Amino acid sequence: MSPETPSGQIAPRSAVKRRQVLKGLAGGVAIFAWPTPGLALPEDATRAIQALFGDRPLQEGRVVVELPKLSENGYSVAMAIDVDSPMTENDHVSRIAVFAEENPLPDVVRFELGPRAGRASIKTRIRLGASQRIRAVAQMNDGSLWTSYAFTVVTLAACVVQG
Amino acid sequence: MTIRIAIPSQAKVGEIIEIRTLIQHPMETGFRRDEYGRAIPRDILERFSCLYNGEIVFEATLFPAVTANPYLTFCTRATESGTLVFRWTDQRGEVFEETADLEVV
Amino acid sequence: MTNSATITRRQFIVGASAAGIGLSLGVLPRGASAAAGPDEVNAWVRIATDDTVTIRIARSEMGQGTLTGLAQLVAEELECDWNRVTWEFPTPGQNLARERVWKDFSTGGSNGLRGSQQYVREGGAAARIMLIGAAAEAWGVSASECSARDSVITHGPSGRTTTFGKVAVAAARQPVPQNVTLKDPSTWHTAGKPKMRLDTQDKLTGKLVYGADLRFDGMLLASIMDCPVKGGKLVSFDADAIKDMPGVKKVLAVKTSVGTGLGTDGVAVVADTWWRAHSALKALPIEWDFGPNANFSDADVTRLLESGLDADEAFRGNWAGDMDAAFASAEQMVESVYKCPSQSHAPMEPMNATALVTADKCEVWCPTQNGESALAAAAEASGLPIEKCDVHKTLLGGGFGRRGAPDYVHQVVAIAKAFPGTPIKLQWSREEDQKHGFYHPTTMAKLRGSLDADGKLTGLHMRISGQSILAALIPQALVNGADLATFQGVVKPGLSPSMDQHQISYDFPNLLVDHAMRNPPIRPGFWRGVNVNQNAIYLESFMDELAHAAGRDPLEFRLAHMEKNPKGAAVLKAVAERSGWGSEDGKARGLATMYAFGSYVAACAEVRVVDGKLKIDRIVAATDCGTAVNPQQIQAQVEGSFVYGLSAMLYGEITYKDGQVQQDNFHTYPSMRIAEMPLVEAIVMPSGGFFGGVGEPTIAVAAPAVLNALFAATGKRIRSIPLKDADLTA
Q: By the 8 A CB rule, do C71 and C57 touch?
């Protein structure tokens, strides 16, 4: 008999690191108790940021990410992003990318804009798999990168099996 | 496919206007499972563009973390009267479009 | 936080007063002033000048005793006089405003104590250090020369004393100590002891208020009916037909969007009394579109589940050795198929919530297992910023996992928005509660075991087929598609950090536990014990079957696979010894054991079958939860677990016909009666060094212990619950 499916394989713990075992899992407030987010970015989010922006340094500031402090289940969370920029030909935001540190996929949404936008102010609704930081990185026309984040607690059904 | 666009019908030259858009779409993440435990395939809109008299003024790349019925609010500077085109492209390349006219005075 | 800003039980209206008439308070309690009052030593502790100590409790109280246990832990470190301790719930809004100083409000997963014991103890210890510091400063002595006990601070060298109440205000200004050292549980005098519950007396006098008791001046009452078929829609209703019925104020469609497939689409009637609202709702002509599940029935569930029993594709939750090879060389194979139904939480108090919405504020009063989840729901439903919303928790007339979902909060806020400035109480009818639950997931299992010539178990395959809670409620928590929670109680050690609290009790040489996910259109949820319950029935019944097939004693047969699990073996031996297992007294006994929610549990049942009817005479149950914070409460929880677990085994079954739940009240969904309740002897045997859960693990061993005893009594193996329709004649 062959009870396994390729998609159903779960690697034994000894073979992989914890983070890899849990990959695709959204951090699961539900089933996994995560340590309080520290300053370091989780691996996946770091990789996603580097994939898009390379190794250039991120500077804290100029970006404001707004999220409600609590979300019931993360299915639909209002997010507002504002970047402090005059949005002129010579000084504007050219790209904004949003990353979720504990979602199954770190990429959330990206925006490309320029002086025609007039104001770097965007609102959308996103899905959050777990309590986490949502980080936005804004690239200016001079290539500099600015970043900030907001933390949201995703409350979930109570009787879940927390660790 | 329902698309809703909220945009002022008139604006002054140079005025920054806010545009609100919403398109009906499941944005199926690919993480959900069906009755038989099989993965429900991902089905998402991947790209959004706003063209102002043919020129791209705002674009977005969407991932599964964007909610069903994606809602997007952004700004543009009113430059001249004309037509704005709002264009979504799904993962198979299918395009959904809506237009709105803006009178600039 | 000041007194007036805090929801105290005295500010609520007692619905069940002696006269049976709700007294009106006249003023609605206003919450969410998170300012620290002058008597607040720190977030966890307020101390009044008369030495009354008020301990803040973030978790919900639904009868499980968490409130008292948490207060004991704080009081132990605080060294206060337990006789002067009272409690209060901070609101989730206050929690947010104070950077979540009370952390998580979620009360489930048997986590109330074990999930917060560390930081509440630290809170108590920090407050003690600050109180001593304030006294020492006033005396001009070193704090290290002072000690506290029973709310009295003593300066050792001089013998000078003062009380907490006298220095509390000064204490709040003391530096907040970092890295406090906690007491070793072996030195505890308040925690670890069978202290009387802090809420019992107020419950007896009717002072404590449940959501269903709430009364506010000018309040209107609502009854609601959601589409009776999952996935169906409200098409229309004829409000004119009932508009002249007495007391009717409004009929409104209530559509809530609570995530994927969890939204509600129904209609509510608001009137001046609940009975009038409900009578009008029943008389209201409503047209539904039942949608794709209009013809769904139980036979569909069975077909779906059966399709998974031998399916090629399944997720693995535990494996060892080479099961196929063991089967190939078996002397004897044993194979059985088991089934467990959907079950309803059926709390005594049906879902309810009260809301007051104005243009700039939304307040909700409700019984909830997760105040923060209810707060988020209130904000989302009202459209107001979360800072302008708050939730005031009441006690819960039963939670069992059901009240972790705030669907009823979405509903009441949606209704209250139509009545700005008027408090609206939404009270579900019992029927609504039964038909719109988050049901215990239904599953089947096929177990196969191989025995060698010596009667040794050489291989075991446990195939679970059935519903995934996470796939329905939290799909993002699936791991490459697998719902690891479906393996609770039979999990491979180390499979995932969060699942080690549910790992399998036995060490089998060749093993496979896998899950073919089958998701019928039934809304599943977390039901006390969650997936441990059916997994315990499957594994522990089958272990009994294997032992009998091997001609071995079921206790000895189990223990042979528990060498690496000495604590599990200890609880099993404890119940065997106390119950008289193996004695030649003619009594029919059955065993079951489990490791779940971080605790080791076992039960031994003694049963008889009299005139074809099951009589459960006695249960001996043992629990090793590591650390016992209140042994009396643990005993009560263990005893209560048998009321709940055995009710589920005897009667708990939700069935479907034409897409609708068939059991709409206690006459069709009964609970065990007092006369049916066995004597329960609870052995609380904490071995120290860890904190295990108490509220849930014992549920799981109730049914298999009885089913195994039933086999001992009759030779009949029952593999499908509930037992209500089973033929038990030997």
A: yes
Q: Which of B67, B69, B84, B102 to mutate to test the interface with A (most CBs of A within 10 A)?
A: B67
**Contact residues for C585 (Cβ-Cβ < 8 A; gap 6+):** none
Instruction: Quote the tokens at residue C267.
Output: 């209609």
List the structure tokens of A23: 């990959």
Question: Residue C283 is encoded by which pair of tokens?
Answer: 């008389």
C152 closest CA partner among C79, C243, C250, C235 = C79
Q: Which residue of B has its CA nearest to A75?
A: B67
Looking at beta carbons, which residues of chain C come within 8 Å of B33? Answer: 468, 471, 475, 478, 481, 517, 519
Tell me the shortest Cα–Cα distance from A146 to chain B, in angstroms.
19
Residue C116 to residue C87: CA distance in whole angstroms: 16
* Residue A153 confidence (pLDDT) above 50: yes
* Tens digit of each residue's pLDDT (9 = 90 or more) over C590-640: 999 999 999 999 999 999 999 999 999 999 999 999 999 999 999 999 999
- Containing C135, the helix (H) or strand (E) segment is helix C117-139
| Residues in contact with C400: Cβ distance below 8 Å, sequence separation at least 6, in sequence order | A159, C62, C345, C347, C527, C528, C644
Q: What angle do CA C106, C108, C109 make, to 5 degrees?
A: 130
Is the confidence at residue C664, as pLDDT, over 80? yes
Q: State pLDDT tens for residues C155-189.
A: 999 999 999 999 999 999 999 999 999 999 999 99
Mutate which of C479, C487, C515 to disrupt the A interface (most A C-beta within 10 Å)? C479
| pLDDT of res. C477 | 87
Alpha carbon distances (Å) from C327 to C222, C491, C504, C540? 60, 21, 21, 20
Length of chain B: 105
| Chain pair A-B, CB pairs under 8 angstroms | 91
Summarised one tens digit per residue, pLDDT across range A32-73 is 323 333 335 678 888 999 999 998 999 999 999 999 999 998
Which candidate from A110, A115, A125 shows the least CB-CB separation from B71? A125
**Taking CA A150 as the corner, what is the angle to CA B3 and CA C256, rounded to the nearest 5 degrees?**
45
d(CA A6, CA C439): 30
CA torsion through residues C454, C457, C458, C459, sign: positive
- How high is the ipTM of this complex? 0.96
Q: Report the predicted TM-score, pTM, of the whole model to 2 decimal places.
A: 0.92
Cα dist. C52→C40, C73, C90 in Å?
A: 12, 17, 17
B33 touches chain C (CB under 8 A): yes
C469: closest CA of chain B, how far (Å): 11
Q: Subunits touching A (CB < 8 Å, at least 3 pairs)?
A: B, C
Distance of CA B48 to the CA centre of its chain: 5
- Residue of A12, A30, A76 lying closest to C477 (CB–CB): A30
- Whether the CB-CB separation of C458 and C514 falls below 8 Å is answered with no
Residue C597 contacts residue C110 (beta carbons within 8 Å)? yes
Question: pLDDT-based confidence at C260, cuts 50/70/90?
Answer: low
How many C-beta neighbours within 10 Å does residue C78 have? 30
Strands (E), C33-142: 40-42, 45-47, 53-56, 85-88
Distance CA C442, CA C524 (A): 8
